[in-house]
Amino acid sequence: MQNPALAAAAATTASGFAELPATASHGPLRIEYRWLNETASDAPLAVFLHEGLGSIAMWRDWPQALCERLGMRGLVYSRPGYGLSTPREHGVKWPVDFMTAQARDILPALLDALEIDMRERQRMWVIGHSDGGSIALLYAALYPDALAGAVVIAPHVFVEDISVESIAQTKQLYETTDLRSKLSRYHADVDSAFYGWNDIWLNPAFRQWTISAELASIRQPLVAIQGHDDNYGTMAQIDTIAARVPHAKLVKLDACGHSPHRDAPDKLNDAIAAFVSAQR
């Protein structure tokens, strides 16, 4: 049965912008965010980290549905360069370690700006998809005492040929089909969003990127989920997680591609709910 407090809060969302001060890794940033079930103040918090071309809008209603299933509040935000957040300046390239900077600097600064205290963070779950899954892994490794657990969906731990080939094909589609106009629904500056993601993944220097060593620092509960038909990565990604984090649970979904929340939402939600419930 659904938590009555969450049922009352489900229709309540609060959107806004958080102003983050400049640091050594970035200039001043304006971050688009949205609360889900905001008035359920006693519920644990789930923070959603979107994919490389994602945003608040591109998640659609999946975070809300999952929060209601888990009995949690939710925080969804668009990373810099995406959605309505500060766009990437044209001509500026993301550095090879851009995901580390997102986990180490941007997410903690956003939590600070939203006045999410340490006690609340210790009950917090991070839920990331694709690049967002990698950022969730890095956050869990960097701040093991500042979360309750992590859910990573189709994360990248190292760069595979299949990833680079698919991303190169996506660039061709962006420049020759209506993909650009479709993505423009989700980003204020669609070229900033697309080329920020595409250029770094196709940068030859990025082929050496890996976070496999960092994974050994993860202490909190972790579930990694991957579809067998993912054209952006193979099962080697989450198998590497299991080798580095022995307590991690793996879920491998049949008839599912790179976006399980769209391809197999019921199976995905069942897997996440079962894992989170087992930790309580």
**Overall number of structural domains:** 1
In one word, what is the shape?
globular
CATH overall fold name: Rossmann fold
Question: How many strands in all?
Answer: 8
Mean pLDDT: 94
Describe it.
This protein has a single domain, classed as 3-Layer(aba) Sandwich (Rossmann fold). It has 12 helices and 8 strands. The protein has helices at residues 4-9, 56-59, 62-70, 98-113, 118-121, 131-142, 161-176, 179-183, 190-201, 236-244, 260-263, 265-279; strands at residues 13-20, 29-36, 45-49, 73-77, 125-129, 149-153, 222-227, 249-253. Residues 1-12 have low confidence and may be disordered.
Element layout with pairings:
Layout: H1 4-9, E1 13-20, E2 29-36, E3 45-49, H2 56-59, H3 62-70, E4 73-77, H4 98-113, H5 118-121, E5 125-129, H6 131-142, E6 149-153, H7 161-176, H8 179-183, H9 190-201, E7 222-227, H10 236-244, E8 249-253, H11 260-263, H12 265-279
Parallel strand pairs: 3-4, 3-5, 5-6, 6-7, 7-8
Antiparallel strand pairs: 1-2, 2-4
